[in-house]
Amino acid sequence: MDEHDAGLEQTAPVWAVFGDLMSGLLGAFVLLLVGVMVVQLQLTSSLEDEVKKRQIEEQRRISLEQALAIPLASGRITLNNGRIGISGRLLFSLNSDQLAPEGRKLLNSLVPPLKTYLGAREQMLMVSGFTDDHSIRSRNSQFADNWELSAQRALTVTRALIEEGMPSSLVFAAAFGSEQPVTPNVNEAARAQNRRVEMAPVPRASNASKTSNAKPDAP
């Protein structure tokens, strides 16, 4: 064997290794490209879902504004992110859970549009009571604390709505006490804003969920 043939034999394995390396790199590049495409598709799908969700939420907000156009125009209620706010001064005297006559009239006017809105969307109404940060005990109140006062006010509004025609299956009460103020309790004007009742449409439990939680019939 001459020197030329020996050189070819030594070079051949090198090219074979180089070819294997390039094949491996190409395979890795293809896998990386596929991975990037999968991530992009997932991001695109997530973005589309988020856009649809925002569109639905915006449509719900517009529909709720339209349903409550009259009380909103009068300034007796507010609407922020789907939460209907009513000042505590319109509904109750300070430290009281007894509904004022004007407050009952307001709730009566809200029942027809809210009942129609909820019934068309498989939703129900959460009635939430809120207070300021002042201690109830310092006011010689009959309530143990702000939690109890906010709960009783939420229950009072809930019962009034039912008495005015809201189906009991479409409304429930919740209490937040002095938590979640709309503004810092720095003065009396701010505290008056935090003494409020809010109503917010929320999804109802699905029939499938109710069926799965139901007890099986006895054999």
Automatic annotation (TrEMBL):
InterPro entries: Bact_OuterMem_StrucFunc (IPR050330), OmpA-like (IPR006665), OmpA-like_sf (IPR036737)
Entry keyword set: Membrane, Transmembrane, Transmembrane helix
Entry keyword Transmembrane: yes
Polar residues composition-biased segments: 206-219
Residue spans crossing the bilayer: 12-39
Pfam family, one: OmpA
Region (Disordered): 195-219
Gene Ontology cellular-component terms listed: membrane
Keyword match Transmembrane helix: yes
OmpA-like domain ranges (all copies): 79-205
Domain of life, source organism: Bacteria
PANTHER family named among the record's database cross-references: LIPOPROTEIN YIAD-RELATED (PTHR30329:SF21), STATOR ELEMENT OF FLAGELLAR MOTOR COMPLEX (PTHR30329)
NCBIfam families: PRK09040.1 (NF006547)
Protein name: OmpA-like domain-containing protein
Organism: Rhodoferax lacus
Organism lineage string: Bacteria, Pseudomonadati, Pseudomonadota, Betaproteobacteria, Burkholderiales
